[in-house]
Amino acid sequence: MRPNHQEFADGVKLAAIAAVSAVLTATVVIGAGRTLMPQDEGLAAEQPALVRVALR
After folding, report:
1. Residue ranges of E strands in 2-55
2. pTM score
3. 34-36-38 Cα angle (round to 5)
4. Cα distance between residue 31 and residue 29, in whole Å
């Protein structure tokens, strides 16, 4: 049987691999989404201005 510290080190390695995989997957998915569904730049600039409202 292996020592406990070796099992802990293996767990840390697996957690690091999982974290790196999650970041890379998110990067690829977000990049693909922005490529396939580009946002119109003019649409974002045409947001209505803020209107002042007085509370009574």
Report:
1. none
2. 0.59
3. 50
4. 5
Query: How far apart (Å, rounded) are the C-alpha atoms in residues 7 and 43?
Result: 53
Q: Model confidence over 6-29: pLDDT tens digits?
A: 899 999 999 999 999 999 999 999
Is residue 22 within a helix (H) or strand (E), and if so which, with residue range?
A: helix 4-36
What is the C-alpha to C-alpha distance for residues 37 and 9, in angstroms, rounded to an integer?
A: 42
Distances (CA, A) of 1 to 5, 14, 15, 41, 56: 12, 19, 22, 61, 75
pLDDT at 4 over 80: no
Q: 1: how many CB neighbours lie within 10 A of its CB?
A: 5
